[in-house]
Amino acid sequence: MVKCEACEKEFESERQLHGHLKAHDLRMASYYQKYFPRKDWYNGEIIKFKSKEYYFDNDFNSRGNMQRWLKSKPLTEAQEYCKSVIRKRIEKKKLKYTPSQVELRTIMSPPLQYYQVVLGDYYKTCKELGLKNKFSSIVGTSNFNPVIKKKIKIRTDSREQTPLSLDHPIEVKGLKFGDYTLDNPELCCHCYIERKSIRDFVGTFSGGFERFKKEAQRAEDSGAYLIVLIERKLNECMIFNKLPYVSRKVKVTPEFLFRNVRDLIQEFPEVQFLFVDGRREASRVTKKILFDTNCSSRDFDLQLAYDLKIL
Ligand SMILES: [Zn+2]
């Protein structure tokens, strides 16, 4: 049972309560902001109401406010805050795996490198909180060594519409998943790169989500490692609905889209996402992952490596 805070009347479901709010001339946002006020910890302003979930999940109205608040606090308090963000996610989202950089950067949370500085060892802390680690350690520059194998071709999917210019011999072949691998996939530990423009990305993680899950399942079943490489920076993808080159017909919000992304990351440990700055970067990073990482792309958080300019 849920009670209407305005008139004490009880309802069987939240949905019924939300329908009833009209009787008080209240919109959902004003109802919750009035009867369950939540304030930004940094400046005391009321938390914006994007959805009920968002309203009750966030302690700040912007990442900037969160960062300013953290800076103003002693280390122990910042540490406690970081742990509480992870604990809440474990509880609410039933997380199994330590949140990756893409997961952290798309929720109200500091980026992974901040946790590393404040907590000493992010992965160790997450393990202590009951999570499984997919990655062995924080990536360092020494982890990637160039081992360009001249005789090995890059295998490209025959359905790839706008191939990257890779400046390397190519073999075109139908792939069951992904767009790029090596002509001997064992040499890159069965790593497959799925390239996406921002438009493909938005389409795939809204209407095409179930289809993509099947692809991820096919990849998992055959022991492959799938890297979804998006040719746009993560910050831009997070505001795709405000960008001119993404269709106005797209009805989903970035919040909805990135929830799908985070769900997928938790469901398929053999899938990683990597957002890079444009097509030239996508080409560079594709070659680097296939040739230079010595299979370590499975062991490291690639978005973190890219953000730290190691990849
Ligand atoms: Zn009422």
Percent range for β-strand residues? 5-15%
Mean pLDDT: 92
Which strand order spans the largest sheet, edge to edge or round the barrel?
4-3-5
| Topology order in helix (H) and strand (E) letters | EEHHHHHHHHEEEEHHEHHEHH
Tell me the structural class.
alpha/beta
Q: Helix tally?
A: 14
Computed Rg: 22 Å
Task: Specify the biggest β-sheet.
Answer: 3 strands, mixed
Show unreliable segments: none
The backbone outline, from C-alpha atoms, is: globular
Structural account:
The chain has helices spanning 14-20, 28-35, 52-57, 63-71, 75-93, 101-105, 112-119, 122-128, 198-204, 209-221, 234-237, 254-267, 279-292, 302-307; strands at 2-3, 10-11, 154-157, 170-173, 180-182, 191-196, 225-230, 271-275. The protein is an alpha/beta fold. The strands form 3 sheets. A 3-stranded mixed beta sheet has the order 4-3-5, with no helix packed on it. The chain has a 3-stranded parallel beta sheet with strand order 6-7-8, with helices on both faces. Strand 1 (2-3) and strand 2 form a beta hairpin. The N and C termini lie far apart (52 Å). Residues 4, 6-7, 9, 20, 23-24 line the site of zinc ion.
Q: Care to give the gist of this entry?
A:
This protein has 311 residues and is an alpha/beta fold.
